[in-house]
Amino acid sequence: MARRKKIYEGKAKTLYEGPEPGTIVQYFKDDATAFNAEKHDIIEGKGVLNNILSEFFMLGLGQIGVPTHFLKRLNMREQLVRSCEIVPLEVIVRNYAAGSMSKRLGIDEGTQLPRPIVEYCYKDDALGDPLVSEEHIAAFGWASQQDMDDILSLALRVNDFLSGVFLAVGIRLVDFKIEIGRVYEGDFQRLVVADEISPDSCRLWDIKTGQKLDKDVFRRDLGSLTDAYSEVARRLGVMPNNPPTPGKPTLVN
Ligand code: UDP
Q1: Which of 86, 175, 218, 222 is the pocket-test mutation for ligand 1 (most atoms within 8 Å of CB)?
Q2: Checking CA distances to 57, which of 66, 119, 170, 202 falls within 20 to 30 Å?
Q3: Spatial separation of the C-alpha atoms in residues 26 and 16, rounded to whole Å
């Protein structure tokens, strides 16, 4: 069997050339990193959970008409996605203050924001992904004004969708990060939600107890990360032995 070509190895995923032109295989690793990779560990089973959870969210977004790069899950650790050019921005949406925003502005973690706030960070590990304004984005040509309008509207639609899905299972979506890809179709480009959506890139708190069910468990040494992610998957009804079914809404008890 021919060895497949590795395109890129990131902190939590490895990308391989897909079987058809314009496709990529995303392999979800068990590596967990925080603080710009200063903290690193292997968390057994994390990759499997994130693969299935990301599939669940991307399928759901597709069902409400939000374009994503997701094509199909291939196995427990891999999914096939459309290859796209990643816009070099981390798009962060916040519903409650937490993390870097709480530190920067001195707002207590958990304070509800008057409306969702969208922030942009320039994707550059060496610089620590600095916060940037739309002025920087336009001036340095990272995205056009039209792109920014589309990105804002995508980010808010993803926020509404995810907030509702989590609320239904007793989880508060505090904030999350998405990445946006450009897909070219002939002379046209379309923006799609790319990368992954998982507890690695969201802050998720149990509504009743405030228990953290996201990567802060790892960042802040709060217990077992696998237990936290499994609890999210269990509540959404998509454990590895019961993965999402494309096209079918999942019943939650
Ligand atoms: N986030 C992410 N990757 C990053 C930075 C942030 O997925 O490189 C997510 C993070 O998990 C949280 C949200 O974006 O859900 C906001 O993160 P914040 O700016 O508060 O940074 P942090 O406190 O995590 O450093």
Answers
A1: 175
A2: 119
A3: 7
